[in-house]
Amino acid sequence: MRHGMLNTDDVHCLQSLSRPLHYSDGIEPSQLFPLRREVESCNNSRLKELPGPKHNYPAMDHAGYDIYGNPIERESAELLLDRINALSIISLKAGAQVMLIQNVEQGSLVNGSQGLVLDFITTHDAQERGIAIAEQTTRRGQDDIPISDGSTVSSEDLRPLNNNVFGRQQLWPLVRFENGREMLCPPLDFTVEGFMGNVEARRTTSQG
């Protein structure tokens, strides 16, 4: 077999291994694709197979500033955000398999950790039930943004690129991860920063 030549017994041996695989935690291995559109096509196809209502999460996008404190133009900010892993809209259902694209718990739940969506609940419900809530582990962009002349620009002055907002009663995905940890996954910030640490663009969205 290692010489690239198979006899009948070899073929029968390999064919005997063809069987449905069962994953006790319900989390299947991830498929890898070279293009984002292929990833999205696969995700949408798998999502359609699941029963139940679909929850859509449009991102909140903001344009920031360059190292001189000049506003980043809308078109440039949109191009910057188009290059990051966080999508402009995420659609999920209970039973959907998801993957973190940002660290939320160092050494435990990190970029690449996978899980299954169990339910959709509010942050208030999660607190009442003692369920952990994912929090930002990287800089949230709430601090003042440094620029080249030594001054700063307030991150509160980032300019919105859309009208999307998140309400207090918004339902967020409750996820059970492969290590057994259950956590609510509300929106987190994903930023594109210049070499001075200035936020050029920011996307706030749920992970999935």
Give the key terms.
208 residues; alpha+beta; 4-stranded antiparallel sheet; 18% helix; globular; Pif1-like_2B_dom; DNA helicase Pif1-like 2B domain-containing protein
How many strand segments? 13
Figure out the total of helices. Answer: 4
Outline type: globular
| Proportion in helices | 10-25%
Roughly what is the average pLDDT, rounded to an integer?
Answer: 87
Largest sheet: 5 strands, mixed
Terminal Cα span = 41 Å
The computed structural class is: alpha+beta
Question: Please, could you describe this protein's structure?
Answer:
This protein has 208 residues and is α+β, with helices and mostly antiparallel strands. The protein has helices spanning 8-15, 36-49, 74-82, 123-128; strands at 55-58, 60-63, 89-92, 97-99, 114-121, 132-133, 144-146, 152-154, 159-160, 172-177, 182-184, 188-193, 199-205. The chain has a five-stranded mixed β-sheet. The two termini are 41 Å apart. It comes from Gymnopilus junonius (Spectacular rustgill mushroom). Residues 91-120 form the DNA helicase Pif1-like 2B domain. This is DNA helicase Pif1-like 2B domain-containing protein.
Can you describe this structure in just a few lines?
The chain has helices at residues 8-15, 36-49, 74-82, 123-128; strands at residues 55-58, 60-63, 89-92, 97-99, 114-121, 132-133, 144-146, 152-154, 159-160, 172-177, 182-184, 188-193, 199-205. The chain is of the alpha+beta class. Residues 91-120 form the DNA helicase Pif1-like 2B domain.
